[in-house]
Amino acid sequence: MSAGAALQAAVAGRLAALGLLDGVYDGPPARAGFPYVALDAASESDWGHKSGAGREVGLAVTLWDTRADGLAALGDAVEGCVVGTRDVAGWQLVSVQLLRRRVVRDVAGPWAVAIDFRARLLAA
Question: What is the pLDDT of residues 65-79, one digit of tens each?
């Protein structure tokens, strides 16, 4: 399994166990109850060394909700889950770094917290 897919699966499992979300999806769902999270960890680059393979993975987490109140606290919980991820199948997670976090509003009405991370993993 690629580093991005393994990281995305690990993060999805942690977010689902959080119990605060209606759903966790690999990309934007066709229909979903609010609040929900869409994940994307498809961006990978080499982060290996002389004697081992590694990957740097860009992880985009988008939290959607219809209400702005409470969105920051829910965003904090989601961010904590991602940063607290440790077990990634087949990979050793070396670091997870927050790159940016912003609140945006869709024209259709829902609010979103878009959180971008950089994760560095070595093959186990």
Answer: 998 899 999 999 999
Neighbours of 63 (CB within 10 A): 25
Task: State the pTM of this model.
Answer: 0.94
Token pair 């999806």 is found at 25
> Could you tell me which of 55, 63, 45 has the C-alpha nearest to residue 101?
63
pLDDT band, residue 107 (cuts 50/70/90)? confident
For each of the domains in the chain, give its residue range(s) and CATH number, in order of start. 3-123 (3.30.2000.30)
